[in-house]
Amino acid sequence: MVTKQVPVQRDGVTIGAVGLALFSDFDALKKTYSRISKAELAIPQSNKLWQSKFSLDDILGEGEQMESYRGSLQLVAAYDLPVLISGETGSGKELAAHAIHALSDRSDEPFVWVNCASIPSELVEAELFGYEGGAFTGARDRGKPGKFELAGGGVLFLDEIGDMPLSLQGSLLRVLQINEIVRVGGTTPVSVNARVVCATNRPLANLVKAGRFREDLYHRLNVLPINVPALRERNDLSFLAGRLLSCIAARLGKPIPALAEKDRQLLLRHAWPGNVRELENVLTRLIITGKLSLPFTDPPSEPARDGSIPPLKRRIQTQTGAEIHAALERTQGNKRRAADLLGISRAHLYRLLKTQGVRSSEEPGPG
């Protein structure tokens, strides 16, 4: 083919160019077009679908603690650096990531998310970096762009970063250092421009000590740390419950129920192992059924009797059992991962299971 480039100028300054290509035959044109990945052509259109859906206004709460938390999100959003969001399950880590994107200079660009715990370890690399056509069995003939390419100019949110395979962490570190990727099965580096925001409900520092998370990657990600407060650590539960009741009732088209004082006290005494997500579920059931139903309610305080468990010890056991149950539910009964979530050894977890009488999904039920 014969090519020609003509500069476009304005006031003596080159502001662009027009390219012209003349092909000697139609077969040459077809061969050239076949080398252009259909997936690559689709990136600009698909980017429009990857947008943040929440903002800082969606983070409900009042008081000095929550004002400080929202201020931290505004602060880190202003800097184009990696962010590591830590917090318990259900506390609102993804909501924080959305808010950071919406507050940043990249707010008009894509917000692309990946849950590292939900993707099989052998597919995580292809999901993040994409792959060339025929790179592995079952791959598309024309290849596929990865999440880093889809997030070009915007934010890539890596949820549950603590579950990323150790073998892939070095590749992620390289991307953070030089902003380049190589697709699976590819040979050419591809430049990327995506701000990385990570979230974890696991203590990464402990995983580093255990040799399950790279120390250099941990320090590269932990530039701007954000800690999402657990619901039991907040002092605005009554306010939050009222706001959530209004929002949920409006969404369901139901009247806002009145919260009796005894129900309010039950909410205040509950341990909330599932945090805000659990509170939303409880309030949704209240709106639908008219009854407040808590899966793990602390027993009322009463004088200890001979041979009975003291009230404080009983409350501690109840909260411990709730947290163990939530961890096993989160890991679908996997005791090793549940122990990691709780920050204890597997042997300690087995002892607690025996004393608490909690059964995981791995164990058969009666009969």
UniProtKB/TrEMBL annotation:
Gene3D superfamilies: 1.10.8.60, Homeodomain-like, P-loop containing nucleotide triphosphate hydrolases. PROSITE patterns: SIGMA54_INTERACT_3, SIGMA54_INTERACT_4. One of its GO terms (biological process) is regulation of DNA-templated transcription. One of its GO terms (molecular function) is sequence-specific DNA binding. The keyword DNA repair does not apply. Signal peptide: none annotated. Keywords: Activator, ATP-binding, DNA-binding, Nucleotide-binding, Transcription, Transcription regulation, Two-component regulatory system. It comes from the Bacteria. Residues 59-288 form the Sigma-54 factor interaction domain. This is Fis family PAS modulated sigma-54 specific transcriptional regulator. The lineage of its organism: Bacteria, Pseudomonadati, Pseudomonadota, Alphaproteobacteria, Hyphomicrobiales.
